[in-house]
Specification:
This protein is an alpha/beta fold. Helices cover 44% and strands 23% of the residues. It has 3 domains: 2-68 and 108-134 and 201-303, Rossmann fold, CATH 3.40.50; 70-106 and 153-198, no CATH class; 319-387, Sandwich (Immunoglobulin-like). The protein is built from 12 helices and 15 strands. Strands 3-4-2-5-1-6-7-8 form an 8-stranded mixed beta sheet, sandwiched between helices. The chain has a 4-stranded antiparallel beta sheet with strand order 9-10-15-14, with no helix packed on it. It binds adenosine-5'-diphosphate and magnesium ion (MG).
């Protein structure tokens, strides 16, 4: 099963491109599901069919679903959230505020992804295309398995510290309400099964992110940052879609000539910056790209001889290299700013910080006992040295 995630700045054409990819792939014979994880759903409008939180067949071979974040939150975070609400209430934060707070930042996005996870493992689809929320939210979405992993592990450690027998007593004396065992059972289920599976799925070579851009400065800049950030979490991008390119017929007219030159320049810049990712240009259409026929034509023009579901390019992945004095962990981070990078080793984990983002990497068993001996940035990769302590 192949998983494609389309992301980019708001309004650039994520939903359109995701839907066009899905229609094109389905018509070429793949059992395809296109799912929207953006709370501001427009997938149904684009496909021209009302959609709901369960997959619905749009045409033979193609189904679509608008994942309902609220329902997913209830399903997956229900008990944990109840506990948090109780905890916030106890601290004097009442009613709605407590409920809102308990919707942990990122939880909503992550649970929509957990919702998609059920389709990923079902075996019903050859291709699942995710129409994601704008870049920032997508990043929270794909990094949450990592973040939640840490948070839930802390919860589980807390449980370890308070043996079940002690809990009723502790309830009397500890100044905060303690979660009951069901909370931990839910946490455990989330942590050990679904989040792990989801994390593995996102890092798998069958998953690719595609960045949707338009030839505009702010859009390009946001995509550049997104590429670096996604790399920190080992999500690989396999292509860039350059949407809303003025067609040749338009730029040959005097009025659009400057515009044409500018977009050519930006296209070159994007191709250079994002190399080795291929850049797929998509023309600005004379009307909105909605309905199956227009989407199919848009998809055909976008992919041409390419297979829309193929891995369109491969980028280097994290590697662990051995040399005479130890190991080097090499994490590709295209165009990262080295002055904003730092690393620290905590127990058997390597924590990499890139600006506001933090990635926790569990080290392989042969490296974990070694000492962090230094780090530097070279050839678009962070290299961290580990050596044996004498
Ligand atoms: N290549 C294109 N040509 C013409 N209109 C487009 C094109 N791509 C997107 N649009 C239109 O732009 C608007 C925003 O596109 P959409 O796919 O919803 O963006 P996003 O999902 O990134 O917010 C929609 O009205 C869509 O029909
Ligand atoms: Mg959209």
């Amino acid at each position: 099963m192949r998983l494609l995630l389309y992301t980019g700045k708001g309004g650039v054409g994520k939903t359109t491109t995701a839907a066009a990819t899905a229609v094109c792939a389905a018509r070429r014979g793949l059992r395809t599901l296109v799912a929207s994880t953006d709370a501001a759903h427009s997938l149904g409008d684009v496909l021209g069919t009302p959609l709901g939180p369960e997959p619905r067949e749009v045409e033979p071979g193609l189904s679509a679903v608008e994942l309902d974040a609220r329902a997913e939150v209830e399903r997956h975070w229900g008990r944990i959230r109840e506990y948090l609400v109780a905890l916030f209430r106890y601290q004097g934060i009442e009613g709605m505020v407590a409920e809102e707070l308990a919707l942990l930042p990122g939880a909503e996005e992550a649970t929509t992804l957990l919702g998609a996870d059920a389709y990923l493992v079902s075996g019903d689809w050859d291709l699942v295309v995710l129409d994601c929320a704008p870049t920032g939210a997508t990043l929270r979405l794909v990094t949450l398995p990592d973040v939640a992993h840490g948070a839930l592990r802390t919860l589980l450690r807390l449980q370890g510290a308070l043996a079940t027998v002690v809990t009723p007593v502790a309830r009397e004396v500890v100044p905060v309400p303690l979660p009951d065992r069901h909370v931990f059972q839910d946490a455990e289920r989330l942590l050990y099964r679904r989040l792990r599976r989801l994390r593995a799925r996102l890092l798998d070579e069958s998953t690719s992110v595609r960045l949707v851009l338009t030839p505009e400065r702010m859009v390009i800049d946001e995509a550049r940052r997104a590429w670096t950030d996604l790399s920190l979490f080992e999500l690989s991008c396999d292509a860039v879609v350059m949407n809303r390119m003025l067609p040749d017929a338009a730029v040959s007219e005097a009025f659009f000539a400057d515009w044409g030159r500018l977009q050519e320049e930006r296209l070159r810049e994007v191709a250079e910056h994002f190399a080795p990712l291929p850049v797929l240009p998509a023309a600005l259409q004379d009307d909105e790209v909605t309905g199956l026929e227009r989407l199919a034509a848009h998809g055909e023009a976008l992919f041409g001889a390419r297979d829309p579901a193929a891995v369109l390019s491969s980028s280097p992945r994290i590697s662990f290299e051995r040399d005479a004095s130890g190991y080097v962990v090499r994490l590709p981070l295209p165009h990262a700013d080295p002055s904003r990078l730092d690393v620290v080793k905590v127990d058997d984990e390597l924590v990499v910080r890139a600006g506001a983002l933090r990635r926790t990497l569990r080290l392989p068993r042969r490296i974990a006992p070694l000492e962090l001996a230094g780090a530097h940035f070279e050839d678009d990769a962070l290299r961290v040295r580990f050596e044996r302590r004498d």
